[in-house]
Amino acid sequence: MSEDKKEEQPKKPKVPRQPMPEQDAHVRAKNFQEVTTGYTEEQALLEASRCLQCKKPFCRTGCPVGIDIKSFIGLVSEKNFLGALAKIKESSLLPAVCGRVCPQEMQCEKFCIVGKKNEPVAIGRIERFVADYQAKHGGGELPQPASTSGKKVAVVGAGPSGLTAAFDLTLLGHKVTIFEALHKAGGVLVYGIPEFRLPKAIVEKEVDLLQQLGVEIKLDYVIGKIKTIDQLMEEDGFDAVYVGNGAGLPWFMGIPGENLNGVFSANEYLTRSNLMKAYEFPNYETPIGRFKNVAVVGGGNVAMDSVRTALRLGADNAYIVYRRSKDELPARKEEVEHAGHEGVQFKLLTAPVRVIGNEQGWVTGLECLEMELGEPDDSGRRRPVPKKGSEFVIPCDAIVVSIGTSSNPLLFQTTPGLGQTKKGYIEVESEETCRTTKKGVFAGGDIVTGAATVILAMGAGRNAAKHMDEYLKTGEWWSNS
């Protein structure tokens, strides 16, 4: 048998996959403290011992930012936790974030050889451990940027994609300024993901690291309003621009009654709670409705975040209303399980058709149809088909719509020559190069792909930084411009 064949045969691990410690479900459903509490040192070492240290570590191919997973886990096994963190940070600015919110089960862990016959190594949980270890104990050194290139780069958006691009470009020696529309940097990490999944202090720490490296961050700065991309390049002397401002324009269902009071987009609902700290009202001045019966329409991670937030804000009943079955839920399995344990009620194979309200204009219910699954649609999932005469009403005083987002049209309106796809996103040569149709302007993350994951947005930021560096050195652009 060849060496390659031998490598593909998983050995039985000596220890089982280590469970993640977490708050009791009944307790955490009433607070905004982090649900999972992280591995102990003993657990991290046991989990690291499960890694086979493969000659060909396929896990790395599943990581959108190319972390050297084999090496960092090997360093953990040696109790060199700061060394492991340094190894991760060669590729990723945000290990404490990614260790918490990345769908490792669909990425690195999906390719883990141990997972062929057993549960895969918990790569994300080990990554989180080393980041949390450094946060608790200190130590570690800042990476050192290359010698100054003399080039200036503007980054539009301080979300995971923009932060990653800024990090890599800074290490390459370029002077980077980030322009962020909101009053805090972090993008979806601060406005979208709740405190109980990602404490905001963690995001702030990573943003502080960028600033220590010399990145300037301008907040409350809407590109397209205060200045255009052309003005950044022609008047302010930026040699290149990276657009990573996400896809934050919410979709609605287009059904009768959707304009009633008590209907929210998930973006508004979560931004008010997370970024503006409404859940701590009146300590923070932003109020938020504390409804008793909340229906969240959708089945993704944002829907799970919304419905679990509703519970924590005091809802007696919090529902997920989803038109397919549990098997088709796009949210992470872990988030679905956490929601169920906390008391979320799932109304599956259910499609809203009308919002019902009272004379005062407030929501009182959501009329729905029962569905059944038919033939697969373009996504490969079986298409939901309504059952005739199956109408029923879910009593509720609030509805949160979480069915997707699209791009804000402002940049297209203010940036001549910036190509737009049929779906309304920025046109690029490829997701690898991130070059747009406008010379010197690159784009990546959700503004190119539509709503996706944090780590995929970070991967786009890394790709963009690499190709922006090439452009800044050569001035060469793609032939279709």
List descriptors.
about 475 residues, five-stranded parallel sheet, alpha/beta, Fumarate Reductase Iron-sulfur Protein, Chain B, domain 2, single chain, FAD/NAD(P)-binding domain
Question: Would you give an account of this structure?
Answer:
This protein has 17 helices and 16 strands. Mean pLDDT is 94; it is low at 1-7. Helix 13 links the parallel strand 7 (293-297) and strand 8. The chain is globular, with a radius of gyration of 23 Å. It has helices at residues 3-7, 25-28, 41-48, 69-77, 81-89, 95-101, 123-137, 160-171, 188-191, 200-212, 229-234, 266-274, 301-312, 333-342, 410-414, 446-449, 454-474, and strands at residues 152-156, 175-179, 216-218, 240-243, 249-250, 263-265, 293-297, 317-321, 345-347, 350-357, 363-376, 382-386, 392-395, 398-401, 405-406, 441-443. The chain is of the alpha/beta class and 481 residues long. The protein folds into 3 domains: 3-137, Orthogonal Bundle (Fumarate Reductase Iron-sulfur Protein, Chain B, domain 2); 152-248 and 407-474, FAD/NAD(P)-binding domain, CATH 3.50.50.60; 251-405, FAD/NAD(P)-binding domain (3-Layer(bba) Sandwich).
Secondary structure tally, helices: 17
Classified by CATH, the class of the largest domain is Alpha Beta
- Global geometry: globular
The helix-and-strand class reads alpha/beta
C-alpha-based Rg, rounded: 23 Å
**Terminal residue distance:** 52 Å
Fraction in beta strands: 15-25%
- Percentage of helical residues? 25-40%
Biggest pleated sheet: 5 strands, parallel
CATH architecture of the largest domain: 3-Layer(bba) Sandwich
In total, the number of domains comes to 3
* Major sheet strand order: 3-2-1-4-16
Q: CATH fold name of the largest domain, please?
A: FAD/NAD(P)-binding domain
CATH H-level superfamily of the largest domain: FAD/NAD(P)-binding domain
Overall pLDDT score: 94
- Total count of strands: 16
* Poorly predicted runs of 5 or more residues: 1-7
